[in-house]
């Protein structure tokens, strides 16, 4: 499983996924890839588009980490930004503290009390630990699991 995918190939596949899913992503999101670590910057209209960008990025083979710094421009769709940020930070802390979880392999997005988990888990146990940490959050009304397992079936 050491077949490394070039950053250029990852970039091209992410752009392709963006165009197919929602063309606005390909024009509004700046993607840079460095050794499999993917950084997204720019502005998107809705929190759903931000979450979609994360989900699509993790679907590309060779991606080891996703950092989503996208700004949401339509803040009217965000009810309680402070609670969402607190929940995300709290969950990130729990993942870092849990020795049996590789926290860099996961991205957390919290939107209006819904926790979106993306990333790659080593196995089902690791995935279940991440999900259960998310479910324990005080402000989490719902947990949406987009985590894939390492048996790498990504494109």
Oligomeric state of the chains in view:
single chain
Proportion of helical residues: 40-55%
Task: Give the total of beta strands.
Answer: 7
β-strand percent reads 25-35%
The main pleated sheet reads as: 4 strands, mixed
The average pLDDT is 90
3D architecture notes:
- With 155 residues, the protein is of the alpha/beta class.
- Helices cover 40% and strands 27% of the residues.
- The strands form 2 sheets. Strands 1, 2, 3 and 4 form a 4-stranded mixed beta sheet that branches. It has a 3-stranded mixed beta sheet with strand order 5-6-7, with helices on both faces.
- Helix 5 (124-135) links the parallel strand 6 (114-121) and strand 7.
- The longest helix has 17 residues, at 81-97.
- The radius of gyration is 15 Å and the shape is globular.
- The two termini are 14 Å apart.
- The mean pLDDT is 90.
Describe the secondary-structure layout.
Blueprint: H1 7-21, H2 23-28, E1 29-34, E2 37-44, H3 47-58, E3 65-68, E4 71-72, H4 81-97, E5 106-111, E6 114-121, H5 124-135, E7 142-149
Parallel strand pairs: 2-3, 2-4, 6-7
Antiparallel strand pairs: 1-2, 5-6
Summarize the structure.
This protein has helices at residues 7-21, 23-28, 47-58, 81-97, 124-135; strands spanning 29-34, 37-44, 65-68, 71-72, 106-111, 114-121, 142-149.
Keywords for this structure?
155 residues, alpha/beta, three-stranded mixed beta sheet, 5 helices, 7 strands
